[in-house]
Every structure is written in C-alpha cells, then in structure tokens.
Amino acid sequence: xxxxxxxxxxxxxxxxxxxxxxxxxxxxxxxxxxxxxxxxxxxxxxxxxxxxxxxxxxxxxxxxxxxxxxxxxxxxxxxxxxxxxxxxxxxxxxxxxxxxxxxxxxxxxxxxxxxxxxxxxxxxxxxxxxxxxxxxxxxxxxxxxxxxxxxxxxxxxxxxxxxxxxxxxxxxxxxxxxxxxxxxxxxxxxxxxxxxxxxxxxxxxxxxxxxxxxxxxxxxxx
Length: 222
What we know:
- The chain is α+β, with helices and mostly antiparallel strands.
- It folds into two domains: 4-47 and 149-204, no CATH class; 51-144, no CATH class.
- The protein contains four helices and nine strands, in the order ααβββββββββαα.
C-alpha cells in the first residue's frame, strides 16, 4: 500500500515545486484528504470491493424496527457504514448456517409482526424493518469507509491510487492556492485518466455482489 507522502510528492511534481517551497505537506494535506474521499466514493459508486465489510451479529429486540448510527439503547449501525448492500437474519440461538437473506423494499411497510422480519429499507441513514414476534439476529454486509488520511505517513489502503491522488491533489491546490485554472485543468485531466485506469482494473477483479452503481463522474478544474 502506498504512503500518503508518495501522493504528496506526485502533487509537488505536477505543481513544479519538488523542493516544497510552497507546496509543503501541511499545505497539501487538506487537498489530499479531499481527493481520498472522492476516490473512495467513486469506488463505492462503481461497485469496487475495496471497502466492503460485514458487521458483527446484531441482536435486535422484537419490537425494534430500525438500526441507527446513534441508538439508546442498542442496536447501533457500524460507525464506518456508508451504504448497506444486503442483510441476513436468523433467530436467536440458531447457528450461522441458518441465516436467510432479507429482501430490500420500499419503506414504509405496513406488515403484521411475524417470526422473521424478512424486509428492510435504507432510509435517511437508517436501516428500517418490520417488528418481529421475538428477538432476531441481523448481519449487515455494507460499504464501509476506509481509515482517513492523518498525515504523510498514513498507509493508503487503496492499491495503485497514488497517481490519481497526486494529480487530484495538484488540481485542487493549483486552483485554490495558485489560482491557475489552466494548470488545474491539466492536473484534473491527469486525475481523470488515472481514475479511469484504476476503476477499470478494480472492476475487472471485483466480486459479483449486488451494488447500486452510479455513473462515473469526471473531475474538472473547479
């Protein structure tokens, strides 16, 4: 995995400031962090497996009809969850082999409580489902956020991402700090090309899991 400093050095190269007279780590880090968030969102949008995760087993009391990021009392969503992919459920006391797939549906659902909840919906950062006649256990497969970039020593957990991150960081810095729209546009073009290659390679190797795929978004100078 590349270090953040590799992307920062790439950005300095494009900004013609290899000696870091102006483009220091402190100056570029906010732009690198933004570029990293953009890349992570593009990976999710294109169904790439980099940030897939599975939650621990979540025990849901019978009357509970949702899981939220802040819940009193529990259950609570995984703090790094971005979007759920699929949910499985089983009854309390059953082995994992008894997990059954729940069906994503449109909310609200006006259903009488049954043994299994069967349906779920993602609504405004909440996972909602019907009540049940007894406690159930739910497992969530989801897109999760990767560890954020803290400083130049951070390991970036996206393989071969330094070219995109360096170019995108340079584009942002060129536009915001140097007010150089021409250079920003050129760096953004490099970033788009690097992103296309990165996504193409990653998508070929992804697992065939369900995902909401969105249209590829190119970056411009602004």
